[in-house]
Design a protein that fits this description.
By secondary structure, the chain is α/β, with parallel strands linked by helices. The chain contains nine helices and nine strands. The chain is globular. It binds SN-glycerol-3-phosphate (G3P) and calcium ion (CA). This is Glycerophosphodiester phosphodiesterase.
């Protein structure tokens, strides 16, 4: 089997073993040997970057409401852990800066943005500049236009094109927007060898998502992907250690 290094990317932290997108989940991903974590952000009413998958707090906290209509003070009162079990009671919705304070500098962070809000764009660029994070952060989205706007606003930001339907061939994706992507993030079922090889020739990373079963992880490692996004970073790390 190929020995090309494959990066372990913990999806929403270690979402298979802890409540997603909480500091407990990110800490567990670190402990389980992830090289990177993936997370989702939305802007709060007062323009801060809140780590949460949904646009509302309804599913993953004990509160209700739109993140964009709530201040950080309101959001930080919510319990974002109890739904994952008593051991996680009292976990709070993290701000993006809380995550950077937690994860070690060796780790990359894949920030997924789900909206094209100028408030989000400004806050994200501000944080990347202030904390000098351009080397270890890549920003992905299904909304490619908003990534292009982000890249035009700050050329140092690395962007990753997410696909939930058949992805463009890497050569097309590479040339389509007039800005250079860093990575392609296709659904894992939509990746084959020629896709990976073409991306590699163009210097594009390939990060399939979200892969939780070992045979599929093994097959993707064999294809030579750059990294695998998984809810179970420990499982992928264990597999890579055995290969
Ligand atoms: O980055 C891959 C994956 O996170 C995209 O889908 O819905 O889990 O944010 P979703
Ligand atoms: Ca995501």
């Amino acid at each position: 089997m190929t020995t090309k290094p494959v990066r372990v990317v913990g999806h929403r932290g270690a979402a298979g073993d802890a409540p997603e997108n909480t500091l407990a989940s990110f800490a567990l991903a670190v402990k389980q040997g992830a090289d990177a974590i993936e997370l989702d952000v939305h802007p709060s009413k007062d323009g801060r970057l809140v780590v949460c998958h949904d646009t509302t707090v309804n599913r993953t906290t004990n509160g209700k409401g739109e993140i964009g209509q709530m201040t950080v003070e309101q959001l930080k009162k919510l319990d974002a852990g109890s739904w994952g079990g008593k051991a996680f009671a009292g976990e709070r919705l993290p701000l993006l800066e809380d995550v950077f304070d937690l994860v070690p500098p060796r780790m990359e962070v894949n920030v997924e943005i789900k909206s094209d809000s100028p408030a989000l764009r400004d806050a994200l660029i501000g944080m990347l500049r202030e904390r000098e994070l351009f080397g270890r952060v890549f920003v992905s989205s299904f909304n490619h236009e908003c990534l292009v706007r982000l890249k035009r606003a700050e050329p140092l930001v690395k962007i990753g094109l997410l696909y939930d339907t058949k992805p463009l061939r890497p050569a097309e994706a590479h040339g389509k927007y007039g800005v250079e992507p860093y990575s392609l993030h296709p659904h894992h079922k939509l990746v084959d060898r020629s896709f990976v090889e073409e991306a590699e020739r163009l210097g594009l990373r390939v990060y399939p998502w979200t892969v939780n079963d070992e045979p599929r992880m093994r097959a993707l490692v064999e294809l030579g992907v750059s990294g695998i996004i998984t809810d179970f970073p420990g499982k992928l790390r264990g597999l890579l250690d055995r290969l």
